[in-house]
Amino acid sequence: xxxxxxxxxxxxxxxxxxxxxxxxxxxxxxxxxxxxxxxxxxxxxxxxxxxxxxxxxxxxxxxxxxxxxxxxxxxxxxxxxxxxxxxxxxxxxxxxxxxxxxxxxxxxxxxxxxxxxxxxxxxxxxxxxxxxxxxxxxxxxxxxxxxxxxxxxxxxxxxxxxxxxxxxxxxxxxxxxxxxxxxxxxxxxxxxxxxxxxxxxxxxxxxxxxxxxxxxxxxxxxxxxxxxxxxxxxxxxxxxxxxxxxxxxxxxxxxxxxxxxxxxxxxxxxxxxxxxxxxxxxxxxxxxxxxxxxxxxxxxxxxxxxxxxxxxxxxxxxxxxxxxxxxxxxxxxxxxxxxxxxxxxxxxxxxxxxxxxxxxxxxxxxxxxxxxxxxxxxxxxxxxxxxxxxxxxxxxxxxxxxxxxxxxxxxxxxxxxxxxxxxxxxxxxxxxxxxxxxxxxxxxxxxxxxxxxxxxxxxxxxxxxxxxxxxxxxxxxxxxxxxxxxxxxxxxxxxxxxxxxxxxxxxxxxxxxxxxxxxxxxxxxxxxxxxxxxxxxxxxxxxxxxxxxxxxxxxxxxxxxxxxxxxxxxxxxxxxxxxxxxxx
Length: 584
Known about the structure:
Blueprint: H1 9-20, H2 24-37, E1 42-48, E2 54-59, H3 66-71, H4 99-105, E3 108-114, E4 121-126, E5 132-137, E6 142-148, H5 155-158, H6 164-181, E7 186-191, E8 194-199, H7 205-213, H8 215-218, E9 221-229, E10 232-239, E11 251-255, E12 258-260, H9 263-273, E13 285-290, E14 296-297, E15 308-309, H10 312-327, H11 347-352, E16 354-355, E17 358-359, H12 360-367, H13 384-387, E18 397-400, E19 404-409, E20 412-417, H14 418-432, E21 438-448, H15 451-459, H16 461-465, E22 470-473, E23 478-485, H17 493-510, H18 515-533, H19 543-554, E24 569-573, H20 574-580
Helix pairs in contact: 1-4, 2-6, 6-7, 6-15, 9-10, 14-18, 14-19, 15-17, 17-18
C-alpha cells in the first residue's frame, strides 16, 4: 500500500481556508475587498460578538447574476484574471478566487445578490455539510453576504480565537485600513447594533484621516508632498518627532491601495528618523505608494500582506528622502576646536568633551560652588580640585548633557539617568498603589481617540482604576478622565492612552488569559504610565529634587534598572578611575 494519498476535497478546502481565514477579521477583509472590486460606493459591515457569531457585509456594487453567484463558491473561480500575464498586472484587491470557498468551508454562508437593473436576484446558501442551495431572491442592489458561526466545524481552530474585544479590535483595524485606502467610499461598521465607524465619502486622504482619527490627531503629523520619481508616486503622513510612540501601532503602508508589510519601506522610514527620536521609540506613518502593477509582485503571501518590488532601492531612496524633506531637521555644524586647556586635550578630542557648550572643567566648577550659590560660571575656579584629588565633602549634582546627572561620591563617581530613575520610582509606586495620591480633577480631561483604541480603553477601564485613574465614556470615541494620581498630572493623556491601547492589544493577541497574563498586563501598563510621566531630559531638577529622587530610588526593589531593563545608574570607583587613567 502506498503511504501517499490524495486528500479529500473537504479537507483540502479546510487546509486552504487556514491560509486565508485566520480569524473573523480575515473574513471581513476578504468580503470588503470583494465589495470594493465590485465598484461599491457604500460598504456596511455588521458583526455580533466580535464576529464569532455573525459577520455581515453589504454593498451597492455591480452584483452578480445567478450563474456567477453559484460559481463564485467554487475554488479558483474568479473574474479578476484570465491568463498568466494577468498575474503580473493585478489592479484589483482579489484575484485568486479563494475567498468565498475558504469562508464557506469553515462557516455557514448566505449570499444575496443581483445585477444592476435586474428584476430578480439570487440567493445562495451553504450550511452544514457544505450543501449548496441556490434560489431566487428579491432584487436588492449590490451584494449582501452573511457569515455565521465561524469555525463551527473546526473546534480546534475556534478555541484559539481571542476575546470578543480583541477580535473586534482586529476587525476595526481592517475596516480602518480599507477606509484609508479608499476615501471615496462610505464605510459603516456596527458591533452588536452599536455604531463603531461611520465615515461618508471624503474628497481626499486628509479628510478621511480626520474622519477616522480626529482633528487633534492630525496635528501630530506632517503631510508628505506628493513625490513622483520614475513613475513611483508617494504621499501620506508621517509623525512629528514629538509623536514617537512606544509601539509600532500606527505604521501603515499601502501599495496601490493594498495594505502590506514591507521591510524595505519600514527601514527607509526609520533611517529618516535616525538620531531624531530615541532608539526605544517608533515613528508613526501612513504611506501610500502608487506604482506600475507590473513592477510589484502581490502574489507572494497567502493573505496578500507582503509584496516584492522590481527595484527596491528606488523605493527606499524615495521614501527616505521624502520623509527627511518633511521633517527638515536642523543640522547643526560641529565646531572645530583648537587647543584647549581642558585636561590638556587638543582639537577634535577637546570638542568631544564639550557638554552643551560647557567644558567638563566648567561643569565641575559649577558643581563645586557652595550650596547657596547658583550654577552660573565663576572665574575663580578652584583648580586645586584637579591637583588635590577628589574632595569627599562635595555633595552637589551636576548635569552632563540633558539626560545624565553626575555626583561625586566618597568612593568615586556616580552617573545617573534621571529619566530611568524616575521611571523605576514611579513604576513601583503604581504597582504598590498604597503610596499614590489620587486627585479628583476640577476640570475633567476629555480625550478623543480612534475607534479601535476607544473600544480597547473602554473595555479595560477597570484596570485603570487599579492605578488611580477614573476613566469613563463621553460620547462617540471620546473618553473623560475624572481623577488620576498626582504623579501623573500634566502628562500627555492622549499619547498615554494610545500607547496603552496598543500594548493591551498586543498582550491580548500574543499573551495568556490566566492570572499570569493579567499580571503581565498590569506591569506593562504601569511601565507605560511611568515612562510617560517620568522626568525627561529637558526638565532639569534642582539639587534638592535630585537628592530626593536618588533617595526614593534606594527604596525600590530593583534600583539599578528601569522597568524596561535599562540601567538607572553607573558607578565608577576610585579603582575604576585609576585603571582608566592607566595608574593601576
